[in-house]
Amino acid sequence: MVEVDTDQLKKAVEVQHGCKATVFQSVPIKDSFGGKTVWEGVVYVFSLIGHPTAKRAYAWSAPIEESDKRRFFAVLHQAPITSPVEAVRAAIVAEKRATQ
Q: How many domains does the chain have?
């Protein structure tokens, strides 16, 4: 599994959400559904400075299929998303909906 530099994730958070971000912690995630792993990796929690509605954001990256590039995710900590696992699940659901 290839991990990216936290500076790349920080930049993704700052660009997508228009505020300053600092790394708060990293959380290893292994999310399963029906006995199968649907996602495994590290989600970084960022503290946000200057965002109007959120104090934290969750960020990670994943490889783009059939490419050597990566996609960056930066999800705000706002109800109903209140944990790194929920952020990953929301991104998976959003991607599934987008490809249907």
A: 1
Provide, for the chain, the percentages of residues in helix, strand and coil under a 3-state DSSP scheme, each rounded to the nearest 5.
Answer: 25, 45, 30
Whether this prediction's pTM lies above 0.85 is answered by: yes
Mind listing the pLDDT tens digit for each residue in 45-99? 999 999 999 999 999 998 888 888 899 999 999 999 999 999 999 998 888 888 8
Domain encompassing residue 70: 6-98
Q: What Rg do the C-alpha atoms of the chain give, in angstroms?
A: 13
On whether residue 36 sits in a domain, the answer given is yes
